[in-house]
Amino acid sequence: MPSLGQPLAGLGFLTIGRFDESDPRAGHLETIEMIQRAEDLGFDSVWLRDRHLQFGISSPVAVMAAAAMRTNRIHLGTAVIPLGLENPLRLAEDLATVDVLSDGRVNPGVSVGTPMRYDDFKHALYPDTHDVEDFSKERVLRLLRCLRGEPVSDFGGTVGIEQFSRRVQPHSPGLADRVWYGGGLSSAIWTGEQGLNYLTSSVVTTDDGSVRTDFATIQAQQIDAYLAHHPDPASARVSHGLVVIPTDTASADQIRRYEAYAASRLERTRSPQGPRGLLFAPDLVGRSDELAEQLYAHKGFQRATEMAFALPFSFEKSDYIQIITDMATRLGPALGWTPTS
Fold first, then answer.
1. Quick one: fold of 10-334?
2. In the chain, what are the domain boundaries?
3. Of 90, 130, 156, 312, which has the maximum CB count within 10 A?
4. What is the value of pTM for the model shown?
């Protein structure tokens, strides 16, 4: 639990990997270059969002595979892969392949539930089964069973010159222990009971028993519930992710745009939104010493072990470079974090 004088265990950031529809290659290469830059700056991890039918990363596992070949140390995570669009067995094969190639650096964050705007494309995704697909947490358990090497086939042996395995191949020991899950209070409890790692973000839900108060208190309540139900809370990993924009080396124009961006999103933080009672955290903009002070006072941050700051969706490449450089050289050290050489 970070506190003054206690170092932060891990520092990373989360990116959407945006691209221009007319030139998607350039945007994907920019993401790979950003991951390389993050490793050079000493970050512990980079996390990739998953956006389907949008102009952001739709295949984070493929991007991680490319990044794994261009880096040596940095951990590669997803936040998150919505399992409603995935076959857990096939996804397990892909994740394990990249984990083997990266020498054990993959951290899969996943979610469940009906996919966003499902009715718009369900016939293309599941032509014959769209009305009977199971989008419950059983999909996570199926993925875990595959990653742990439990049998998925009734046959293992040799047919002619071909050999067949009863479990998913390749098998990557330890990958299942690096699976992350997030969500509201009930999901926090379930995540702890399963012994999974817990992802938090800049949004919480308040429709499942969370005390309807300020964002940080709700998030702290959910983390406490996760830790209380984890079989080994001392080893539990909690990642904290807010939109945090350090301005130490930013230009006057950048500061103006960053502050305008945060101000444009402030209204949604004042009260819960929609039927699920979504409550958003205010974006934090300022010098690293100011940001560190605010984070140390944040009840959610106080209960986390790692940070994965979320990069805004709509900034320019030069903005992202300035932000992650200040994170690594100014904000991280202000939080007691030391870059990895």
1. TIM Barrel (3.20.20)
2. 10-334
3. 312
4. 0.96
